[in-house]
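# step 3/5: fold
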Amino acid sequence: MPQVKENLMETVSFGSLTQKPGNVETNITKSLLDGNSKFPILSDKEMNLGVLRYDTPHLKKHKASTFIVSILPVGLQPAFKALFAEKFPQYAEEGHGSVIFNGSTQLENIFYNKIETLTSVSQFPDILITTDLNSLYHRSTRLLNDRNFETFNYSLNYMYADTKISHPTKVFGYLGAEALVMVVHKAKYETVQSPREWYELLNPALKNSIVFCGDRDFHCNTVFAHFVKEYGYEALNQLSKNTLLRIHPEEMLLAMNSGNKINASVYVMPYSYAKNIQNNLDYEIIWPNDGAILIPIQVLVKRGAFDKYKDVIRFLIGEELGKLLEQHGLVAANAKVKNEFPGTKLNWIGWNFIRNCDMHAMKEDIGRRL
């Protein structure tokens, strides 16, 4: 954990960066995507079970147990479900062992809060797919070893070559990752250079000008953890001042495609959403010079489950699913996929940083400061 810098403005050189901030409030709202699927959806009631054994009523009715639980980015869910159902129709029907979690922020928080309480590998499903630096990175790390979970020894896509994202004991496999980029409103940068690296978001001239992923009670852990790592907690105080809103990327798209109703200068969002900006004459996607920040999609496979579900596991890390991720704007981990993006440099927070800090305490501190 880096030490907190005494004077951030001396540590980070802002040079001559200046701009007029956009600070108009907005009440824009939009529901998250609704997924239509044969897969069962976990409800609040089911998520509040004492332990996460996933033996929900509809599964008991069919005398089946859930072996795979998946929490994916909402924009990817429908396509993933369709492909999974095509490949494994025996698991696709409700009650046949598959749970795809359709996430609102509230329900995802319930899920990940419960994950953090698990004390035994027996409480995990055979296959668990999760996104972001979630509760698996907290105090559950003592469970994440090759005695409890299968290991993955395969080459990742060339774009990951310099990231060192591979888990130290190889118990995480990777489907791919969201790549966080900046989207700038060109009208705000007619006379000055738009930001090209992440530190430039600390510019005090950006007060009330930046829109991040999240909502009033939730923030994107990965991007703010990056600033803690690189510049210390004091950087969060400046980011808090510079933040106009935290909203879902779908809401960002709605705002931009409707004429910048939010009146922000910079949007920090996954490339999977940014690639769908229709109003591209007014906006520019910036793939930062220091790398798009990665939000990983990782899979855990319980020890002994590989032989039983090897076809499913090979599918999860395989080329066909990798191509699907790339088509939706995510960075596929499969080595055979040709990832095509505006940039190639990726920015992973690093396992040394994760091991050497209390991730739970850090996230709580980030929330307080924001």
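# step 4/5: annotate
Confidence is low (pLDDT under 50) at residues 1-64.
# step 5/5: archive (pending)
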